[in-house]
Design a protein that fits this description.
The chain has three helices and nine strands. The chain is an alpha+beta fold and about 190 residues long. The protein has a single domain (about 1-190), classed as Regulatory factor, effector binding domain (Multidrug-efflux Transporter 1 Regulator Bmrr, Chain A), CATH 3.20.80.
């Protein structure tokens, strides 16, 4: 019995280590933290290149329906050329009745260097350098958790006299197999 518990514990420890290793070896935007207050940060982001697609429907359905064509683009399934490394986070923002889902491209690429998508729905563009405020949290992203964290961030912004611009941006850093307590999620606003 003790041997079985020991083996299971070792397997869980190795699996947890694999999740941490995989998440830490994915390129993320190199932003500068200008101010930190607990789990809230004001950040200066560099210009970012993204591949994006718009999808209608609720938030969860939109991100699921956008993932396949974006993954097909970066993994060269429907176009010529080299594969593009996966990065984090995947972002999502509501605009009118649709959601824009984005994969951030690795920093080594300019817009001119990126392969042209074969899927006309996949759009490449550059987001200019900007300041954003972010609240970081763990858990499985669902509408309730995102709404709670968005309200927490809005309250912090109001207390600081900062007016956010536009709709919140939701950022997801992990694959769907990462346990909720190990996930990194964020709600961000431009300001």
């Amino acid at each position: 019995m003790l041997a079985t518990i020991g083996v299971l514990s070792a397997i869980m420890l190795l699996a947890g280590g694999a999740f941490v290793y995989a998440a830490s070896n994915v390129e993320k935007p190199k932003y500068k933290v200008l101010q930190k207050d607990g789990n809230i940060e004001i950040r200066q982001y560099p210009a970012l290149r993204v591949a994006e697609i718009k999808r209608n429907g609720n938030r969860g359905r939109a991100v699921r329906n956008a993932f396949s064509p974006l993954a097909s683009y970066i993994f060269a399934r429907e176009r010529e050329g080299e594969k593009i490394s996966m990065t984090a986070p995947v972002t999502q923002q509501k605009s009118g009745g649709s959601w824009t889902v984005q994969f951030i491209m690795p920093s080594k690429y300019t817009l001119k260097d990126l392969p042209k998508p074969d899927n006309a729905e996949v759009r490449l563009r550059e987001i200019p350098a900007k300041k954003r405020v972010a609240i970081r949290f763990s858990g499985r992203q669902n509408d309730k958790l995102l709404a709670e964290k968005e309200q927490e961030l809005r309250a912090w912004l109001k207390a600081k006299g900062i007016t956010p611009k536009g709709n919140p941006l939701y950022a997801y850093y992990n694959d769907p197999f990462t346990p909720g307590f190990m996930r990194r999620n964020e709600v961000l606003f431009d300001f």
